[in-house]
Automatic annotation (TrEMBL):
Name of protein: Oligopeptide ABC transporter substrate-binding protein
Signal in keyword set: yes
Species this protein is from: Levilactobacillus suantsaii
GO molecular function, one term: peptide transmembrane transporter activity
A GO-annotated cellular component: periplasmic space
A GO BP annotation: peptide transport
Stretch forming the signal peptide: 1-20
Short name of any one Pfam family annotated for the protein: SBP_bac_5
Keywords per UniProt: Signal, Transport
InterPro entries: Peptide/Ni-bd, SBP_5, SBP_5_dom
Domain Solute-binding protein family: start-end pairs: 116-518
Positions with biased composition (Low complexity): 47-62
C-alpha cells in the first residue's frame, strides 16, 4: 500500500569544501551496508516525566514539515503520492482501518478488525460500531470498498494500482473498464452496514501486515465524495479544501502549500486528544535548523526529512531530545530504460534506450563514492545502502549483498567491455555505435550541501569518461522533477537521484511492477515479475522460503542496476522538552492522542 515519493533525504550531506576528500579512486573499506555503519543510537520515544498542565493543553502544538517545495495538498491517502502530504494531514489519522503491533502486524482494536481465511481465500473487514467521520457521518462498508474503485478506475489519478490487486475477483475486469463494479467485494449486511468480504483467487502472507499490496487499509468517505468524478477527485474541494477524517483531529484550515491547522475531532472513537490546537508548517531545509534553535517548533513531522547536517547542528541543544529509528525509506538512483504504455496500463522496456545497457548502469554506480560520503558527512545518521530493501525489515534485508562500493577500475572495465570508448582523441566516451553520448542527470533542488553532492556525482562520472550533465543545467524543483519522471515517455532525464518512503510491508510490486505507475524508470523483466510474484505465492506462507525469495530479488536488482541503492538512514526529530508522550514505535497507534504539553511556551 501507500508508497511515497520523498525529497532526497539521507545522502544530502556533502559540504562543498570537502569534495576533493570524497573523490578517491577506491574505497579503503567496502562496507556491506549494515546498519552498524550508523554510529548514532537513538530512542524511539521521549520519556518526559514532567507533568502536563491544563493551561499548556489549551495552547498550540507547533510542528515543522522540512521541505523545499510547497506540499501538493492532496489529503486522500489513495490519491496522495508525496510523503509531505501525508505528513501535513497526519493528525487526521490517515483514515487507517487497522491497529498494528511493533512489527506492523495487523491487530484488533482499530477502526476495524480483520479476519483472513486461507480456506475460503477471503479477507473479512468488520467496522467498529462507533466509527464516524469528523463531520459526524458513520463510516460504512461502502467506505471500505470505495478505495478499490478509486485505485483501479481507468480515469483515476491514483498511483497505487499494481498487478497484485488482480487477485481480487473482478478487479481486473473493473480495471480494464469491462465491468462497472468489483464483483469480488461484497457487503453481507449492505453498503451502509459494517462488514465487507473481499474474495481473492488466493490470499497472501503479506496480508497479515499493514501496508501490503493486496489489501487497501484506509477508508474513503463515499457519501461525501460520491458526486465527484474519480478523475477530478484529487482537485476537488472535498480533498483539498475541506477534507474529513476518522482520526483524533479534524482539519480547521489549509493554507495551500504552506500549512494545516487542527483541533480535536469530537467524533473520534479512540483516546480523546489532549492538545487543543495543532499547526503544521512547511519550513525549508536551509531554515529548519535556525527555526529549531530559536524554539519556533516543538518537533519536526515524524517521518519528515532531516539530514545528517541537521543532526550535527541540533544534537547538543539542551531543550530538545533527539528521537528516531531506522527509516522506512531509502535513497536510490533510477535509470530511464523505457516508457509507460497508457493504452495497456503497463511499463515497457526499450532495448534501444540510452540507458538500456546494464554495463553502463553498473559502471555509473561503481563510480560513486557513497561509502565515504555517508561516513564522513552523514554524522552517524546515514550509511551506504546495499540493496533496495532497508534494514528495518530485518527478516528480509540481505546484509551479505555488497551493492556498489566505489571501484573506478571496475567501472572503466565494464564500459570498455560494452564498447563505450573514447574515440578520435575525445575527452568523453561515445556509445558502442560510435555516437556522441551525453547523459542527463535529474536532481531535486535542496540545500547547498545537496548541490555540492550532485557536483561530486558528476565529478566521479567524469572520471570514468562519461559526459554527464544536470538536466537543463541545474537542479529541479521537487514537483517539477516528479512531474517529468512520471510522464508516460520522457527523454529529459536519463539517470536520477530520488527517495522512497515505503509502506510497512516490503513487497515491491507497487514500486517496480509491470503495471505500477510508480515504476518511473520503467524497468520490466520476466524474472523481476516472477520473483515479486513468488514473494506472495502459496509457498511464501513458509517464511523461510519467502525470505529466500526476497534475498534473491535483492541480488537480481543489484545485478540489473536499473534501480540502484543509494543510502539508508535514520528517521529522526528534535523534540522539545515541553512535549510529553512522543513515541514513534509502530505499536503506538494513538501517536497524536498520546501527546500532551507541560508548558504554555516552547522551552
Amino acid at each position: 500500500m501507500v508508497k511515497k515519493k520523498l525529497a532526497l533525504s539521507a545522502m544530502a550531506v556533502l559540504a562543498t569544501l570537502s569534495l576533493a576528500a570524497c573523490s578517491s579512486s577506491s574505497s579503503k573499506k567496502s562496507s556491506s551496508g549494515a546498519n552498524d555503519n550508523a554510529s548514532v543510537k537513538l530512542s524511539e520515544s521521549y520519556n518526559n516525566k514532567a507533568k502536563s498542565t491544563t493551561a499548556a493543553n489549551n495552547t498550540t502544538l507547533k510542528v515543522a514539515e522540512p521541505n523545499d517545495s510547497p506540499f501538493q495538498g492532496i489529503s486522500d491517502p489513495v490519491l496522495a503520492s508525496n510523503a509531505e502530504d501525508s505528513d501535513v494531514f497526519a493528525p487526521g489519522g490517515s483514515d487507517s482501518l487497522f491497529n498494528v503491533d511493533k512489527n506492523y502486524k495487523i491487530i484488533d482494536g482499530g477502526l476495524a478488525n480483520l479476519r483472513l481465511s486461507r480456506k475460503n481465500n477471503t479477507a473479512t473487514i468488520t467496522l467498529r460500531k462507533d466509527a464516524k467521520w469528523s463531520n459526524g457521518d458513520p463510516v460504512t462498508a461502502k467506505d471500505v470498498e470505495y478505495p478499490y474503485e478509486v485505485i483501479a478506475n481507468k480515469k483515476t489519478t491514483s498511483q497505487q494500482y499494481s498487478s497484485d490487486y488482480a487477485r481480487i475477483k473482478g478487479m481486473a475486469a473493473y480495471h480494464s473498464g469491462k465491468a462497472k463494479t468489483i464483483s469480488g467485494i461484497t457487503f453481507p449486511d449492505g453498503q451502509k452496514g459494517r462488514k465487507v468480504v473481499i474474495h481473492y483467487s488466493s490470499i497472501s502472507p503479506s496480508m497479515k501486515f499493514s501496508g501490503n499490496s493486496f489489501l487497501w487499509t484506509t477508508v474513503e468517505p463515499y457519501e461525501y465524495i460520491k458526486n465527484v468524478p474519480i478523475a477530478k477527485l484529487a482537485a476537488s474541494k472535498q480533498v483539498r479544501k475541506s477534507p474529513i477524517f476518522t482520526g483524533p483531529y479534524k482539519l480547521d484550515k489549509v493554507v495551500e502549500g504552506e500549512s494545516t491547522t487542527w483541533s480535536p475531532n469530537k467524533y473520534y472513537y479512540g483516546k480523546p486528544p489532549k492538545i487543543k490546537h495543532i499547526s503544521i508548517n512547511v519550513v525549508s531545509s536551509n531554515n529548519i535548523d535556525k527555526a529549531i534553535q530559536s524554539k519556533k517548533y516543538d518537533f519536526t513531522a515524524p517521518g519528515g526529512v532531516m539530514h545528517g547536517t541537521d543532526y550535527k547542528q541540533l544534537k547538543n541543544l539542551k531543550n530538545y531530545k533527539m528521537v528516531g529509528s531506522a527509516a522506512l525509506s531509502y535513497d536510490y538512483f533510477g535509470f530511464n530504460v523505457g516508457h509507460y504504455d497508457t493504452k495497456t496500463g503497463k511499463n515497457v522496456m526499450d532495448k534501444n534506450s540510452k540507458m538500456a545497457n546494464k554495463n553502463l548502469r553498473q559502471a555509473m554506480m561503481y563510480a560513486l563514492n557513497l561509502d565515504q560520503v555517508t561516513k564522513k558527512f552523514g554524522y552517524g545518521m546515514t550509511w551506504r545502502a546495499n540493496t533496495l530493501i532497508p534494514p528495518i525489515f530485518t527478516k528480509y534485508w540481505d546484509s551479505s549483498e555488497k551493492g556498489f562500493p566505489l571501484n573506478l577500475k571496475k567501472a572503466k572495465q565494464l564500459l570498455n567491455e560494452a564498447g563505450y570508448k573514447k574515440r578520435n582523441g575525445s575527452k568523453w566516451r561515445s556509445d558502442p555505435n560510435g555516437k556522441k553520448l551525453t547523459i542527463y542527470f535529474g536532481a531535486m533542488t535542496g540545500t547547498s550541501a545537496q548541490a555540492a553532492e550532485y557536483q561530486d556525482y558528476l565529478q566521479q562520472w567524469h572520471k570514468i569518461g562519461l559526459n554527464v550533465q544536470l538536466t537543463g543545467g541545474k537542479t529541479m524543483e521537487m514537483n517539477s522533477f516528479y512531474s517529468t519522471l512520471q510522464s508516460p515517455k520522457q527523454s529529459k532525464i536519463d539517470v536520477y537521484a530520488a527517495a522512497w518512503g515505503l509502506s510497512s510491508e516490503p513487497t515491491p510490486t507497487q514500486l517496480y511492477g509491470v503495471e505500477a505507475p510508480y515504476n518511473m524508470g520503467h524497468f520490466v523483466s520476466k524474472e523481476n515479475t516472477k520473483l515479486m510474484n513468488e514473494m506472495n505465492s502459496e509457498k511464501a506462507w513458509n517464511d523461510s522460503y519467502r525470505t529466500k525469495i526476497f534475498k534473491k530479488w535483492q541480488a537480481y536488482m543489484n545485478e540489473q542496476a536499473a534501480v540502484a541503492p543509494g543510502s539508508f538512514a535514520y528517521t529522526w526529530s528534535p523534540v522539545n522538552k515541553r512535549v510529553k508522550g512522543y513515541n514513534i514505535d509502530p505499536s503506538n497507534n494513538e501517536f497524536w492522542s498520546n501527546l500532551s504539553l507541560t508548558s504554555t511556551k516552547i522551552q
